[in-house]
Amino acid sequence: MAVQESAAQLSMTLKVQEYPTLKVPYETLNKRFRAAQKNIDRETSHVTMVVAELEKTLSSCPAVDSVVSLLDGVVEKLSVLKRKAVESIQAEDESAKLCKRRIEHLKEHSSDQPAAASMWKRKRMDRMMVEHLLRCGYYNTAVKLARQSGIEDLVNIEMFLTAKEVEESLERRETATCLAWCHDNKSRLRKMKDLLDPARWRMLIQQFRYDNYRLHQLGNNSVFTLTLQAGLSAIKTPQCYKEDGSSKSPDCPVCSRSLNKLAQPLPMAHCANSRLVCKISGDVMNENNPPMMLPNGYVYGYNSLLSIRQDDKVVCPRTKEVFHFSQAEKVYIM
Amino acid sequence: MEQCASVEREVDKVLQKFLTYGQHCEQSLEELLHHVGQLRAELASAALQGTPLSATLSLVMSQCCRKIKDTVQKLASDHKDIHSSVSRVGKAIDRNFDSEICGVVSDAVWDSREKQQQILQMAIVEHLYQQGMLSVAEELCQESTLNVDLDFKQPFLELNRILEALHEQDLGPALEWAVSHRQRLLELNSSLEFKLHRLHFIRLLAGGPEKQLEALSYARHFQPFARLHQREIQVMMGSLVYLRLGLEKSPYCHLLDNSHWAEICETFTRDACSLLGLSVESPLSVRTLPRVPDRWQCAGLLSACWALGLAAPAPALFCSFASGCVALPVLMNIKAVIEQRQCTGVWSHKDELPIEIELGMKCWYHSVFACPILRQQTSDSNPPIKLICGHVISRDALNKLINGGK
Questions:
Q1: Cα of A219 to nearest chain B Cα, Å
Q2: What is the DSSP string of A255-305?
Q3: How far is CA A34 from CA A185, B28, B83, in A?
Q4: N or C: less crowded end of chain B, CB within 10 Å?
Q5: Are B97 and A99 in contact (CB under 8 A)?
Q6: How many angstroms separate the CA atoms of B206 and B242, rounded?
Q7: Closest approach of chain B CAs to the CA of A81, in angstroms?
Q8: Which residue spans match zinc fingers labelled RING-Gid-type (chain A) (predicted)?
Q9: Distance between CA atoms of A133 and A153, rounded to whole angstroms?
Q10: Is the pTM of this model over 0.80?
Q11: Which residues contact residue A317 at a Cβ distance below 8 angstroms, ignoring those fewer than 6 apart?
């Protein structure tokens, strides 16, 4: 892997990139917890009601038949409570398990097996690309990519698809789906007004922002986009944009066709320290491969000059001028 | 790492609570239902006998009612108690991860130009082709109504087609490819063509004694490789002796190993990648191969590499993204510091990042010369100058030194 990322660096990156990865399933967990509580409360009150009726009847010397039928009622309500409780707990447990799965995946970033670490990084990029594609509205592509990369559990496709449904129904001048969404998120919406919790607002804003962007065709600044911009800037040098294209490097990502255009409006990398790369071999020029300057001013690595030396002469790859090997002078870069 | 551990701790607690609660809930309700069921049975038999409700039974039932009320109300409140654990998960996430991410540059830099968005989409499509994710790439082209050059697609499609054939043990397309790229493969010291012939030969051998003549006649394909692969050819010719007996029982049984197929896919992938100038990293060693121009136009066969357990070659988009993963937090931090200390003047050149990003030596694609005296990158208008002693400084620095009277 060309780019070196230390454990500390990876940790810092997780911090800025992975909030949505964890917060979205958490919000689902929260929602399902509230729903579970509501169900349990409701069924509990039903049970309590029929039991109260039974108690009242008992205190007034009832006929056996009526007691039996009331008991049947109690059994029924208890069974409903049991069923609903089990269902609700299953649902909350499921979303808690999803949170767990995602955390476990994130932890793998620090695997000491290079193959696993490499795989994690590839999946990271795929995850961010899926989110980016969803923001752009390319749902089928996003779903396909998620499936092929084996990251379906790790991306928030559902959130976007729900928003898409709401939006599409609004486009059809139907308000039912949107209202259903508001109803679905009612308690959260209501609480947000009350509690003014910034994090909650942000989550909701993210959801609505997505809708707004699509409606007004504003830009989509996905994590992917922002990361890519930072990366292109960190690699970009003036040589990627020399007019005659002579200093382009086949290895340099910013020199490649599409990325070259993308990186144009972005700032350049800041380099406080010199580093020289030999044009012939792509190797670094340092004390193991000292930089040598030919009389025409171009600098190459000593090892490269050795490798292209023929009959004690070298041909400058850039200008095709021929020099004696001995004419190459060592230069000192600090 | 601590961030993940922190959140995980809270999630684990919640999971444990759900488990315990779920078990307890089911159990208590089962017990209640059982108890009520018993009572009902007693009552039913009393009803049959026509006896009135006995005082004892009435008392037991009242007690049962109280128990039911207490139990279910406790179930409801026990569930409520889990709420604090649930919200602690959310708080742990908020504490350890940043909810806002900001750009390094002004937000509008790519947005306002539809064209840039399209170029980005194109870069993603190219990346997907390089990954071998052809169907995803096609889908994106459709959804974004992008037209990709057939010229661009062609190499990916061809190489993936060959690999698919190899997976189905069809050597034909791979052989064709190897023959047409023979010269360049030889320059790379690749033995792909020979290996393909060898595999075909072995497959014939596996067909038993009836295939002997065919195998013999196929052996003429080895002739051009006689010098380089003498030993291996001898082994294969030797195995013919055991054809009647059955190769599996002979000292040559290793030839029938299935691993040959996996090996050929790997060889083909490596050689195709090297031919097209891509560096392939394997988890065990790093091999950089001789560079060839127009490298970034070629097929990467990344998914094949992944399938074979080879680490991916590093195509442009992937590299840029990975660099961004390193750069982003650094830049966000410094932006925050600059804003906090209100010294926005520090980031005065909007055309250069305010801080150096360490990406490692493998990301040094271009030479960069920073004047050791003035600590600035040189440019066309301020080029590096070599002094007689061999040291190099920028022209501006040289002028400063001269004017300083030294």
A1: 5
A2: GSHHHHHHHTTSPBPP--S-BEE-TTT-PEESTTS-EEE-TTS-EEEHHHH
A3: 11, 22, 9
A4: C
A5: no
A6: 11
A7: 8
A8: 252-319
A9: 16
A10: no
A11: A279, A280, A300, A308
What are B164's two structure tokens? 């698919």
Nearby residues of A242 by Cβ (< 8 Å), 6 or more positions away: A248
The greatest distance separating any two alpha carbons of chain A, rounded to the nearest whole angstrom, comes to 122
Name the residue facing B86 among A29, A234, A265 (closest C-beta): A29
Subunit contact A78:B26, Cβ cutoff 8 A: no
**A44, A82, A265: residue with CB nearest B26:** A82
- Angle made by CA atoms B138, A230, A4, in degrees to the nearest 5: 90
C-beta separation of B255 from B204 below 8 A: no
Residues B131/B146, Cβ–Cβ less than 8 Å: no
Q: Amino acid identity, residue B21?
A: Y
| Successive 10-residue mean pLDDT values, chain B, 406 residues | 92 97 96 93 83 84 93 96 96 90 69 76 85 84 84 74 81 89 82 88 82 86 86 86 78 78 76 62 30 27 41 69 93 85 68 86 84 80 81 85 72
CA A140/CA B332 separation, integer angstroms? 33
* A129/B124 touch (CB, cutoff 8 Å), yes or no: yes
d(CA A269, CA B220): 58
Q: What is the 3-state secondary structure (H, E, C) of B307-335?
A: HCCCCCCCCHHHHHHHHHHHHHHHHHHHH
- Asked whether the beta carbons of residue A232 and residue B51 sit closer than 8 angstroms, the reply is no
Inspect the interface and report whether the beta carbons of B321 and A249 lie closer than 8 Å: no
The vertex-A110 CA angle with A108 and A112, nearest 5°, equals 105
